[in-house]
Amino acid sequence: MNKKDQLRKLLLDARAIADAAEKAERDFTAEEREQIEKLLKAARDLKAEIVADEKDAKLKADILTLDAEFRSDPRQDPGQPVQPGRGKTIGEQFVEAKAFTNWLQQIAPSGHLPESTRGIHSPPVEYKSLLKDLVTGVSDTSAGAFVETDYTGIYEAMGRYPLNIMDLINRRTTMSDLVHFVRQTQRVQEATPVAEANVTEYSGATGEISGEKPEGAMAFEQVTTAVKTIAVWIPATKRALSDAAQIRGLIDQELRDDLYEELEDQLINGDGVGENFTGLTNTTGILTQAWNTDIPTTARQAITNLQVNGRSRATGWVIHPEDWETIELLQDDDGRYYWGGPLARGAPQLWGVPVVTSQTVTQGTGYLGDWRKMVLWDREEASIQVSDSHDDFFIRNMVAILAELRAAMGVIRPSAFVEVAFESGS
């Protein structure tokens, strides 16, 4: 079996594994993925050998062709007119050139130079054929024909926002399309010291102590949040998926990244309309902290606000990257950085509370909170499906690659969060 047949077999084996997974509408198993990677590596190595062999064969053929051209002499063919310089070496063209023969006749009429002759210089001889046949790397008919494109195999994505909020919140699972949770709206605040009773029947007379304990009261509300679907799809041809081994993996990863980027944005900015989550920004009951003097003062007052009015302990700040840059660049009157400066990098903290940056929050506004009080219920984690049942995709050999996830979210204690103004007037 020659190398091209071996290459074809390797690709067919890899294609068979991919077809089996696509037919079952599932991702590759770990074993299948490892097997495909081995097959593709072997195919790439074999293709490189084939390309090298073909290059060697072409070089040999070019050498033979050039050699035949240099060795041929048109004067040997009676049917061809003799052209000056054709079929001659450079040396032959030089000694037979008219400028050289005339000069030689002048200094050596006999055709022989005496051994004592010194300091002579022959006239320049022009070789037009050398200029005309100059080898150049620009032309596809000259050296440029041997230049091969170097395909590195490097793929560089455009990049996405780092997703940090998902690491802060409480994540659970649900098997239902609706999630109910109970939120306390009034806490017990009636506790008070009580003296011991001194009468069996209290009448209200002076000196009587009833010893009656105060009754407490609390109130609750039931909150229902629906499971929402976040989805995105992309069309692709079957040929593209078959011929470009890595494209399916790139598409799958790109679609998943887009789902989670939208999910994190919904956690903060969802307006609750239609299929949108009710994100933190639009949740009723979260605390607010107005701007006061500067960022450090405002941030410290937000911590107190959360402790006193929210009765919660902060687990993190979520701050826009530009606001965090402003905070880290703050200096005292002597030009010293409050947060240590460029040579004192450590875990980001603001007044001892961990900081994560996110571009989902609006620049000029940050959030402080106990992020365990925001819950995401996963109904179906991100999944990828492929189908040709969309529109006329079947007859056009196209498929739709669909990514979707289903989840519900809720802020179970709004007062555990503070919206903080990091700018005057925001």
Written account of the structure:
The protein is elongated. The protein folds into 3 domains: about 5-70; about 70-145, no CATH class; about 225-420, 2-Layer Sandwich (Major capsid protein gp5 fold), CATH 3.30.2400. The protein is of the alpha/beta class and about 425 residues long. Helix content is about 30%, strand content about 20%.
CATH class of the largest domain: Alpha Beta
Number of domain modules:
3
Low-confidence stretches: 73-85
Helix fraction? 25-40%
Going across the major beta sheet, what is the strand order? 5-12-9-6-8-7
**Mean pLDDT over all positions:** 82
Instruction: Report the β-strand fraction as a percent range.
Output: 15-25%
Could you tell me the number of beta strands? 12
Q: Sketch the major β-sheet.
A: 6 strands, mixed
Q: In whole angstroms, how far apart are the ends? A: 74 Å
Order of helices and strands: HHHHHEEEEHHEHEHEEEEEE
Shape: elongated
